[in-house]
């Protein structure tokens, strides 16, 4: 049978074709959409020169967690390692620029020499940093991204040599990097790290490190060498490096490791959707084949062998799948933007997701595989038609019993697969609800977040920053609608995180590596603005100045962990936070706050007043508590800040938006799993309905006879539903058993709920049972309305 004949045959049975193509298109489209994201994030090579040789080199603490590298350790790595063609350090942070008159905060990065050798990056115009520009007190130069070049300088080729203000200093643009190159993250600006003198201790882990592997060195060989170097440094510097190791990870693996589990989970979910769609379409083919028994028997009688009939039926199946694949590709293209908008910002390279030739190839392969998967077994089943039986049958009896057992098996499989998907979605939903209801330790309602920075390169500049912030906080408190205002180095759950490290008590000679805490610079109004209670002692006050002895406030968790007798207040502690974090007296204890994640228990925290820490007072996030609409405060706050210095950039958001961003990944998983679960539920219901309609039609003469002998409508409904209930019960039992085995792999995604949560499984079974019974009731009700005379005549 030619291609044209296949499509003409499908066109004659329009209802069957539309239903089958629609069901398959949903499954193939969902798979294509997710594959588009997976390809962009996990499979497509990084847009750098020979990216398979670029590695991230990190230090590890005693728990094996990857941490930044100290300046001293980096220089030892550079001189001792032999596995790399180049190795470089960098430090990224928001930077303030003034170009074209208006201030702006951009993502900037300071890079050491060799950084562009590692990345293999060359500017599209201009040049890279000269060695003479990578030293302290040299001329300040910068490279900018194509995005910043077009946004702030109009894409002018004459931008080279243009001076602009960066962090309060004048810099000269020497080059523009090519479009698409913005590593790390969405960086817009690169400056030499060598401009800044770093005399930090070996225990200060401030830098990220990247390296380019030599062509004949594997990541495993580099790992072995770096572990040896880390061990030597541990013996040479036991106070700072005794528990510090090293880890070498390929850049693509490092960039995608947080997103990888979520994407694999979604791939598995859409795979189940496709399997359900295949089972559903297989059922449709069996029903169609049953109607065509006479036609196929005639073909066989005229000499068509079984192999030829199987080829014909498979050709029709593949034609259905290819048509569905085209429609699925269109659905994926239409939903791609919505999918990307829903995805959290921490999934890298999402902007690169597109319907490219590789996606076309995936869709074609999925369509062909699907066509064979759902078509082969029905084709073999239908081709076994008994010629005599088929040619003798007529009327409604042509549907016979062909494939009923197989159709029952497929429906059970659909229900079981649906249980897995709906259970996964239910667990994700419960986890998200638990996460959003987790006690945070603060009140985010009607809180505006204002990100600011005041550039300062020396002590006079840092003290100026302190004075500007003090004056701004006073002015902000006077704005109508403001009930409290404060500043902090980083708000809880923000993308910038917070500093942390070890501390020691008065009398200890060195840092106690068993005692660690988070470090925060804050103002007195910060605790009031977020309604973090002062549980003991006092808050910061105006008398906590730079000139007087240092003080700090600790969290309840820190007090309970290290001073369980409740005698923390009055003790002196020191940290490596900055040069002014020595011999600080604890003056208060405040409530616990979940700083690093809603799913993470509160950790010990140390707060220091920004007025005593000038090196930390150049960047504060302002939190403003209002009586109502926070958007009404944006312009008054901006005006107040710019009245102190019009070149200072500010950005506004709400605290609720910060929290929403922090749960972006679980929300993304939950929404997509929910969509796939709804698809599975609908497809399973369609499958149950189709099977029961098929069986009811097959049993029309029997049902007519029962009605003629006095059976009531209710008994007929019960008769039909009985068969359905047995299949549903088998499917639910199988689904629950498989779900309990599989969903344990979801436990790492869950918060506050176990993967075997009984309440979730009971709810899932009820939802599926009700949906399937409702789908079964329609053909059962129709059976109860059969006219016995008409039914018996058909016999």
Describe the structure.
Helices cover 49% and strands 18% of the residues. It has 24 helices and 23 strands. The strands form three sheets. A six-stranded mixed beta barrel has the order 4-5-10-7-9-8. Helix 20 runs parallel beside helix 23 (758-784) and helix 22 (713-742) runs antiparallel to helix 23 (758-784). The two termini are 35 Å apart.
Biggest sheet descriptor = 6 strands, mixed, barrel
Gyration radius from CA atoms, angstroms: 34 Å
Unreliable spans are 394-402
Number of strands: 23
- Give the helix tally: 24
Q: Helix/strand-derived class?
A: alpha+beta
Give the overall average pLDDT.
85
**End-to-end distance, in Å?**
35 Å
What structural keywords apply?
single chain, 795 residues, alpha+beta, six-stranded mixed beta barrel, six-stranded mixed β-barrel, 24 helices, 23 strands, 49% helix, elongated
Topology at a glance:
Layout: H1 3-12, H2 14-43, E1 54-60, E2 66-67, E3 69-70, H3 71-80, E4 84-99, E5 102-111, H4 115-119, E6 125-126, E7 141-144, H5 146-153, E8 163-166, E9 169-176, E10 189-192, E11 205-213, H6 219-236, H7 238-241, E12 245-250, H8 251-256, H9 260-291, H10 293-301, H11 306-342, H12 357-382, H13 387-392, H14 404-436, E13 447-452, H15 459-477, E14 482-488, E15 499-505, E16 512-522, H16 524-529, E17 534-537, E18 551-555, H17 556-562, E19 572-575, E20 584-590, E21 605-609, E22 621-626, H18 634-642, E23 650-654, H19 655-662, H20 664-698, H21 700-708, H22 713-742, H23 758-784, H24 788-794
Parallel strand pairs: 5-10, 7-9, 16-21, 18-20
Antiparallel strand pairs: 1-2, 1-11, 1-12, 3-11, 4-5, 4-8, 4-11, 6-9, 7-10, 8-9, 13-22, 13-23, 14-22, 15-16, 15-19, 17-20, 18-21, 19-20
Helix pairs in contact: 1-11, 2-9, 2-11, 2-12, 9-12, 9-14, 9-20, 11-12, 14-20, 14-22, 14-23, 20-22, 20-23, 21-24, 22-23
């Amino acid at each position: 049978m030619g291609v044209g004949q296949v499509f003409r045959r499908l066109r004659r049975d329009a209802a069957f074709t539309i239903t089958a193509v629609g069901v398959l298109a949903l499954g193939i489209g969902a798979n294509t959409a997710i594959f588009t994201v997976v390809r962009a994030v996990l499979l497509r090579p990084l847009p750098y020169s020979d990216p398979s040789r670029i590695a991230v080199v990190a230090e590890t603490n005693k728990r094996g967690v990857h941490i930044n590298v100290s300046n001293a350790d980096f220089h030892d790595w550079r001189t001792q390692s032999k596995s790399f063609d180049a190795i470089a350090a960098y430090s990224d942070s928001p930077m303030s620029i003034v170009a074209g008159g208006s201030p702006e905060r951009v993502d900037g990065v300071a890079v050491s020499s060799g950084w562009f050798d590692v990345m293999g990056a060359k500017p599209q115009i201009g040049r890279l940093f000269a060695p003479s520009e990578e030293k302290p007190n040299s001329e300040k130069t910068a490279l900018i991204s194509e995005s910043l070049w077009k946004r702030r300088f109009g894409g002018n080729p004459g931008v080279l040599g243009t001076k602009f203000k960066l962090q309060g200093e004048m810099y000269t643009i020497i080059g523009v990097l090519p479009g698409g190159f913005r590593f790390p993250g969405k960086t817009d600006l690169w400056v030499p790290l060598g401009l800044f003198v770093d005399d930090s201790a070996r225990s200060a882990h401030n830098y990220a490190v990247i390296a380019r592997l030599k062509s004949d060195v594997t990541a495993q060989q580099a790992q072995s060498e770096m572990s040896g170097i880390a061990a030597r440094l541990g013996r040479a510097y036991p106070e700072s490096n005794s528990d510090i190791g090293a880890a070498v990870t390929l850049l693509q693996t490092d960039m995608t490791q947080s997103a990888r589990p979520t994407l694999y989970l979604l791939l598995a979910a859409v795979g189940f959707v496709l399997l359900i769609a295949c089972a559903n379409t297989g059922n449709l083919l069996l029903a169609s084949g049953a109607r065509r028994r006479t036609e196929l028997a005639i073909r066989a009688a005229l000499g068509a062998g079984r192999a030829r009939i199987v080829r014909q039926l498979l050709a029709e199946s593949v034609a259905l799948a290819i048509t569905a694949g085209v429609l699925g590709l269109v659905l994926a293209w239409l939903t791609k933007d919505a999918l990307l908008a829903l995805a959290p910002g921490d999934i890298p390279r999402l902007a690169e997701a597109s319907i490219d030739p590789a996606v076309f190839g995936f869709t074609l392969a999925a369509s062909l595989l699907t066509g064979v998967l759902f078509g082969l077994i029905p084709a073999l089943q239908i081709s076994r038609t008994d010629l005599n039986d088929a040619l003798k049958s007529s009327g409604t009896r042509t549907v016979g019993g062909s494939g009923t057992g197989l159709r029952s098996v497929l429906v059970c499989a659909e229900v079981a697969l649906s249980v897995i998907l709906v259970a996964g979605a239910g667990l994700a939903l419960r986890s998200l609800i638990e996460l959003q209801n987790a006690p945070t330790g603060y009140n985010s309602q009607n809180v505006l977040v204002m990100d600011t920075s005041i550039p300062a390169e020396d002590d006079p500049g840092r003290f100026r920053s302190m004075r500007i912030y003090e004056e701004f906080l006073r002015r902000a408190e006077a704005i109508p609608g403001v009930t409290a205002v404060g500043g902090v180095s980083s708000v809880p759950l923000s993308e910038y995180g917070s500093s942390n490290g070890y501390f020691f008590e008065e009398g200890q000679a060195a840092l106690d590596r068993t005692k660690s805490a988070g470090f925060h610079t804050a103002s007195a109004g910060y605790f009031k603005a977020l309604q973090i209670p002062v549980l003991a002692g006092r808050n910061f006050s105006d008398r906590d100045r730079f000139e007087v002895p240092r003080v700090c406030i600790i969290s309840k968790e820190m007090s309970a962990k290290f001073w369980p007798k409740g005698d923390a207040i009055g003790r002196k502690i020191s940290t490596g936070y900055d040069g002014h974090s020595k011999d600080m007296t604890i003056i208060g204890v405040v409530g616990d706050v979940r700083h690093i994640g809603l799913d993470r228990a509160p950790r010990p925290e140390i707060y220091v007043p920004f007025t005593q820490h000038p090196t930390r007072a150049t960047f504060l996030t302002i939190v403003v508590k209002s009586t109502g609409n926070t958007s009404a405060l944006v312009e008054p706050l901006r005006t107040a800040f710019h009245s102190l210095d019009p070149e200072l950039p500010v950005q506004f958001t709400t605290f609720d938006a910060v929290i929403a961003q922090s749960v972006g990944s679980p929300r993304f998983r939950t929404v997509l799993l929910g969509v796939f679960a709804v698809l599975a539920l609908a497809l399973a219901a369609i499958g149950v309905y189709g099977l029961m309609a098929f069986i009811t039609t097959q049993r029309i003469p029997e049902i007519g006879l029962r009605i003629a002998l006095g059976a009531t409508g209710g008994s007929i409904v019960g008769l039909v539903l009985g068969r359905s209930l047995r299949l549903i019960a088998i499917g639910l039992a199988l689904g629950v058993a498989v779900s309990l085995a599989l969903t344990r792999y979801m436990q790492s995604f869950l918060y506050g709920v176990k993967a075997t949560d009984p309440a979730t499984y009971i709810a899932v079974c009820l939802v599926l049972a009700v949906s399937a019974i409702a789908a079964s009731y329609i053909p059962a009700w129709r059976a109860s309305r059969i006219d016995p005379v008409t039914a018996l005549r058909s016999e």
